[in-house]
Amino acid sequence: MASRAYKQRSDHRLGMFFAVAVVVILVAIVAVKGMELNTKLREQRAREADLSQRIERQIERSEEIAAYEKYTKTRKFIEEVAKEKLGLVYEGEIIFRNEH
């Protein structure tokens, strides 16, 4: 009878050991996966911040281009291009050039 009680206790301890081992393994797996997810989250947040900065720069660039487009439609721009590129002047206007 004593051996039967000893065997039951032994089986009970062995079962508890396996149950604890399974729980420890599951906790370890969850911890490792959690760290991996945190790493991915940090990487994604860094990527998001980089993309936000790039979007801001592109918006600024777009605004600059829109302003330049508006400027190119002005009379002042046309006069500047005519003088600089084509050498045109108004009638009676005198141009002084620096010759070296």
Total DSSP helices: 2
What is the typical, i.e. mean, pLDDT? 90
In angstroms, what is the radius of gyration?
40 Å
| Biggest beta sheet summary | none
Bin the strand percentage. under 5%
Reading the helices and strands in chain order gives HH
Structural class: mainly alpha
What is the count of β-strands? 0
Helix content: over 70%
Shape: rod-shaped
What is the end-to-end distance? Answer: 121 Å
Task: Outline the low-pLDDT stretches.
Answer: none
Descriptive report:
The chain is mainly alpha-helical. It has a domain at 2-64. It has helices at residues 2-72, 75-84. The protein starts with a helix and ends in a 16-residue tail after the last helix. 0% of the residues are buried. The model has no long low-confidence stretch (mean pLDDT 90).
Short description:
With 100 residues, the protein is mainly alpha-helical. The chain has a domain at 2-64. The chain contains two helices and no strands.
Question: How do the strands and helices of this protein lay out in sequence?
Answer:
Blueprint: H1 2-72, H2 75-84
Attribute tags:
rod-shaped, 2 helices, 81% helix, mainly alpha, single chain, 100 residues
